[in-house]
Amino acid sequence: MPDQAQSRIPIVTIGGFLGSGKTTLINHVLRQTDDQRIVVFVNDFGAINIDYDLIETADTNRISLKNGCVCCTLNDDLISSLKLFMDDTDRPDAFVIEASGIADPRALDRSIALLEQTGSVRFDNRIYIVDADQFLNAGFEDAETIIDHAAAADLVLLNKQDLAAAADLQSLEAVFAGSAPNSTVLHTCHCRCSLELILGQRLSSNRVFKTENPVEPLSGHHGFVSWSRETKRKLDRSKFEQFVKYLAATSYRAKGRIFFQNQTNQPRIFSMVGRRAVLEMARNDDAEQISQIVAIGKANSLDKTRLESWFEEMLR
To answer: Residue 173 to residues 93, 113, 184: CA-CA distances in angstroms?
Structure first.
């Protein structure tokens, strides 16, 4: 897990076959961004269900929202569109890009990779949505396409689980466990899942962690818990690398601001989703030099005692 050049704007892509729930997920994001400025690129404005009182201005190519978020049409010159926002004095906290339902979401990778080389953005999360109710009825060609696209994702949402039979869900789990072994697979209804799983930016170091109660339920999302710790002591880099491997096997999402032993006083920003982790230099020094980390997972897999043990080991 090598360091990256600097802190960058995270990019999240959302893919999925026609009708799987991509727009539903985007609506979910836009309603819960709080004080973050999210720029969303979509294929069709008409499908975005934005409350009238949330819209500040609207034209043929862009909708500006009162919460600071922006929706733009997804055009052929994605790189230029992203750069316009990156050059803005009010830089966004994250970009969310919706791929067409009939296109391979990996087609976006090349454009994003070019921007990553400039050190200005980070490919943070690849999300792919599967219609759990309709997948088993899909034709062979469509099913193979969905499996192929899902295999490249960090997070796969088996959406509309309320419409699918329990036996069908088990069959789907087996399909994606074999075809997308590096992806985290979640069941959802109406694409409702913890926003922290979608946008890692919400796990910023500005959050005040409660070390006296390191495992807390995520409000409104039963079954998910978060664990967090902070310390003024520096962490062992090699032990942290091993800790990340454990996190990837037991957590869905993790983020932190880390100071390492025997290194400069400039903190590293850590971000993990699915099996993919990134460590990058922070933009600014932290005068207090406090290391902070938070992880999110299911209550039956996020082992509080084990995480505490790992954390204490990294301090030695």
So the answer is: 33, 30, 11
Regarding whether 194 and 156 lie in a shared domain, the answer is yes
pLDDT in tens, 177-199: 888 888 888 888 988 887 778 88
In one-letter notation, the amino acid at residue 172 is L
Q: Are 129 and 14 in contact (CB under 8 A)?
A: yes
Degrees (nearest 5) of the Cα angle 244, 117, 104?
80
Alpha helices, DSSP H, located in the chain: 22-31, 78-86, 109-116, 140-150, 166-179, 195-198, 237-250, 304-314
Total count of domains within the chain: 2
Q: Determine the distance from the C-alpha atom of residue 251 to the mean position of all C-alpha atoms in its chain, rounded to a whole number.
A: 13
Query: Which residue carries 């789907």 as its tokens?
Result: 172
Measured from the Cβ of residue 74, the count of other Cβ atoms closer than 10 Å reads 16
Whole-structure pTM over 0.90, yes or no?
Answer: no
Residues 97 and 12 sit within 8 Å (Cβ to Cβ): yes
- Tens digit of pLDDT for each residue in 33-48? 777 889 999 877 666 6
Residue ranges of alpha helices (H) inside 43-77 are none
Query: Could you tell me the residue range of the domain that residue 117 belongs to?
Result: 3-198
Both structure tokens of 202: 């919400």
Q: Give the number of residues written for the chain.
A: 316
Which runs of E-coded beta strand occur in 214-307?
Answer: 215-217, 224-231, 253-258, 268-273, 276-281, 291-298
CATH label of the domain that carries residue 256:
3.30.1220.10
Same domain, 158 and 262: no
Same domain, 170 and 227: no
| 184: enclosing H helix or E strand | strand 184-187
Cβ contacts of 123 within 8 Å, gap of 6 or more: 10, 11, 13, 109, 112, 113, 116
Tokens at residue 135, please? 């997948």
Nearest to 122 by CA among 307, 277, 297, 304: 277
Which amino acid, 282?
Answer: A
Strands (DSSP E) contained in 46-89 are: 55-58, 62-65, 70-73
